[in-house]
Amino acid sequence: MRQLISSLTGLGILWAIGLLIFIAKLPTTESVVPDQTDGVVVYTGGGGARIVAAMSIFQEGKGERLLISGVHPNTSRARLSEFWTGTPERFDCCVDLGREAMSTKGNASELSNWATTHAFKQIVLVTSDYHMPRAILETSAKMPNAEINPFAVSSGYLDSDGKPTSIKSALRLAGEYSKFLLAHAKRFVDSVGK
């Protein structure tokens, strides 16, 4: 029993240290979009800030098409067009809605299929700062030969010093870190099984 408690305590300490490192290494929201990119994708969630950021990048002329991945089945194209401030023609012709993704792994699959259809190799990936590590992990697993350029949107979970803004924010970051670890573990198991 004592050995079990020691082992669990050790794992807890390692998890906590890993969480601190995870938070410290989260991407800043001062991302730079490369001049040359094939497409822009946004993994939806957390309100409309991610969508607005992705649309802003696309309106600046970056990329040939924009994919909004993980759109809720009840969200209409007209509703999403309310976030658009560019020309209606560019929205109508070149903004694609992905409705199949229900998770980050699903987002990555949806993006991979979309990129394959359009022969895109350079992608700007827009999502929240705290979600970016797992989004990159899942996306690179599906698209190992693509160039994925992250564009992080502030979640509001971190203050200017990079510390959680509240207990609720800390819990959300801890939850995301645990999901990140599970995604890593699953990727490792999948690679061993091949």
Describe the model.
This protein has seven helices and five strands. It is of the alpha/beta class and 194 residues long. The protein has a single domain, classed as HUPs (Rossmann fold, 3-Layer(aba) Sandwich). Strands 3-2-1-4-5 form a five-stranded parallel beta sheet, with helices on both faces. Strand 4, helix 6 and strand 5 form a beta-alpha-beta unit. Helix 5 crosses helix 6 and helix 6 runs parallel beside helix 7. The model has no long low-confidence stretch (mean pLDDT 92).
- Placed side by side, the strands forming the largest sheet appear as 3-2-1-4-5
Q: Provide the β-strand percentage band.
A: 5-15%
Under CATH at level 1, the class stands as Alpha Beta
CATH architecture: 3-Layer(aba) Sandwich
Looking at the structure, what is the overall shape?
globular
Rg over alpha carbons = 18 Å
Keywords: Membrane, Transmembrane, Transmembrane helix
Protein name: YdcF family protein
Transmembrane segments: 7-28, 40-58
Pfam families: DUF218
Main traits of this protein?
194 residues; 7 helices; globular; membrane; transmembrane; YdcF family protein; DUF218; transmembrane helix
Question: Any chance you could write out the topology, listing elements then pairs?
Answer:
Blueprint: H1 2-24, E1 39-43, H2 49-59, E2 65-69, H3 77-81, H4 88-94, E3 95-98, H5 104-118, E4 122-128, H6 132-142, E5 147-153, H7 167-193
Parallel strand pairs: 1-2, 1-4, 2-3, 4-5
Helix pairs in contact: 5-6, 6-7
Keywords: Membrane, Transmembrane, Transmembrane helix
Transmembrane segments: 7-28, 40-58
InterPro entries: DUF218
